[in-house]
Amino acid sequence: MTPEQMADSPDGGAPPRGEGRAAPRAGTTATSRPESGTPPRPLDAIDQDILQMLQADGRASIRSVAERVHVSRANAYARINRLVEDGVIRGFGARVDHERAGHGTSAYITLKIVQNSWRTVREQLTQLPGASHIALVGGDFDVLLLVHTPDNRALRELVLTRLQAIPEVLSTRTLLVFEEEDLEPQG
Question: What is the pTM (predicted TM-score) of this model?
Answer without folding.
Answer: 0.65
